[in-house]
Amino acid sequence: MSEEHYLELCENPVQFENASSVNNVFFDEANKQVFAVRSGGATGVVVKGPDDKSSVAFRMDDKGEVKCIKFSIGNKILAVQRTSKSVDLINFIPDYPHTEFTQECKTKNANVLGFCWTNWNEIVFITDQGIEFYQVFPDKRSLKLLKSQSINVNWYQYCPETSVILLSTTVQGNILQPFAFRNGTMSKMSKFEIELPVVPKPAKLSLSERDIAMATIYGQLFVMYLKHHSRTANSPGAEVVLYHLPREGACKKTHVLKLNTTGKFALNIVDNLVVVHHQSTQTSLIFDIKLKEPDCAVNTHQPVLPARSIHPYRIPLSGPAVVPSQPPPLCQLYSSSWSVFQPDIIISASEGYLWYLQVKLPPTVNLLQDKGKLMDFLLRRRDCKMVILSVCSQILEGGEKGSLPVVATVFDKLNQVYKEYLEAEQSYTVAMESGPSRGSAAQKRPVRTQAVIDQSDMYTHVLSSFTERKDVSHKFVIAVLMEYIRSLNQFQITVQHYLYELVIKTLVQHNLFYMLHQFLQYHVLSDSKPLACLLLSLESTYPPAHQLSLDMLKRLSTANDEIVEVLLSKQQVLGALRFIRSVGGHDNVSARKFLDAAQQTGDQMLFYTVFRSFQQRNQRLRGSPSFNPGEHCEEHVVHFKQLFGASATRSKTHTM
């Protein structure tokens, strides 16, 4: 069996000058830009970003080796660190002078470890003695210190998505102090301790920057710690420990991901999945922190799927040296020259490529045998709809082997998500109709994700084709349809008439009329006008369907016109007249419609009775038996005179 790769590198990577032709390559996580820097006389810089807008090339004076280089958001201001004491800035805003201006760190004897842009004109210097938060004035070519904090710093990490800087403090480096930045303000968050592995004395461990990463998973910020254990025969494998870092309140250890092996690892986050790359086996594992293991503690997770390597990637060749018949060379996956950045970026400096890591869902279907767990996994992924629908079809393809409990579990999981979306949509509609209330934030319209599988999706892609299959017993087909309807009812979702129609057509196709009668009698199939019309059309195949349809229309109470039409079409004119009287609609119905139907029967006494009935109505409503011109009954008056004489139209009316 060929290996099923559920991870792949994006087809169109960002290409830049590789490490062999430049002095240094830098990556800016905030703007997702690669800086290729070449020194000598003047410093040439080529910046490549996710699109052409964020790509730029320029030259600057060679004032020493570049240690760090980053643009502010929107490529407005460039910051370059060349020494451990200061940062140089250059305006890239049109019509502003491009001359450099320099900002030295304020703290005496401090060394600048690096810097982060938190806004287009706000920058944070991280030194070994604390942090300094500045506002940049590009027009004045100056900076203003907004806030600073003294603290011993070993190293730092920045999460651009949440604008949080994490500082490693103390000798062992395992006391972490986060700071949050928003709209020109800097706030100190709760510090926390990373539990280091226990090692035999006198050895002491310190927390390495390589073993820490920050990322947003399911909308929450986590600090991920790659915890290695001592290399002894009975030592457990490495694990990734997740600490949830809220804006306010204490940071808590919430999840442990078991890697079951040791060695060099790297972390990515793709589609809310934690991806752990293992260099020596050249494979990757994926974890979903929302999937809870039934036999483990709440916060302990095993990999969702077996370890697999990233899908082989061929490097696209270009230029005159390309031989058309020769396949492009394979990229060396899990190379030691790879650098991994959050959330989903892999850079090969030696080959000059930046890739986005992606999850492929179709291969996961056969790797995860538990269909309930598979559904939980798929429902949380971005591009899941067609894969989920294909899984539903695949389960049903097994016929009775698919077993109804599995089908029921899958339907319930889908309808739970469907119901949550419908409720969110309804509460949004109510909020919009009532208008904004004081003090409450404006409600956002709920986003319909691909996980919302509605009845039309199921009908179109799964159920309609399933009912036409000849290799599955009709009992199983009906059981599946009824199971889906049961699930919809359980979540109080109004069942669409086309699903009931599918049930009825399947029952009729297999001559299961007794079952149809029972389903209708016990209201398993809910009343609706389209359903009543379908029953009417079945009268030639199943005569009782006519009465079943009428009974349904009567129960609907909003279908009086349809009932009258049905009765008249069956030439049950007196029945239609009695029905319309019973619901109090006699005064408003069209006399012509009834007289047309009575005349078409050819029954003279029936025509006489109906004609007299409407004369009586006219007498009661208007004091005269005559028809108004607007009722267009002239031809019926002439017909009545021809049958019963002119005097009969003027004789006293009688109650029917």
TrEMBL record:
<dbReference type="InterPro" id="IPR049040">
    <property type="entry name" value="RMC1_N"/>
</dbReference>
<dbReference type="InterPro" id="IPR040371">
    <property type="entry name" value="RMC1"/>
</dbReference>
<dbReference type="Pfam" id="PF07035">
    <property type="entry name" value="RMC1_C"/>
</dbReference>
<dbReference type="GO" id="GO:0035658">
    <property type="term" value="C:Mon1-Ccz1 complex"/>
</dbReference>
<dbReference type="GO" id="GO:0005765">
    <property type="term" value="C:lysosomal membrane"/>
</dbReference>
<dbReference type="GO" id="GO:0010506">
    <property type="term" value="P:regulation of autophagy"/>
</dbReference>
<dbReference type="InterPro" id="IPR009755">
    <property type="entry name" value="RMC1_C"/>
</dbReference>
<feature type="domain" description="Regulator of MON1-CCZ1 complex N-terminal">
    <location>
        <begin position="25"/>
        <end position="143"/>
    </location>
</feature>
<protein>
    <submittedName>
        <fullName>Regulator of MON1-CCZ1</fullName>
    </submittedName>
</protein>
<feature type="domain" description="Mic1">
    <location>
        <begin position="381"/>
        <end position="628"/>
    </location>
</feature>
<dbReference type="Pfam" id="PF21029">
    <property type="entry name" value="RMC1_N"/>
</dbReference>
<dbReference type="GO" id="GO:0031902">
    <property type="term" value="C:late endosome membrane"/>
</dbReference>
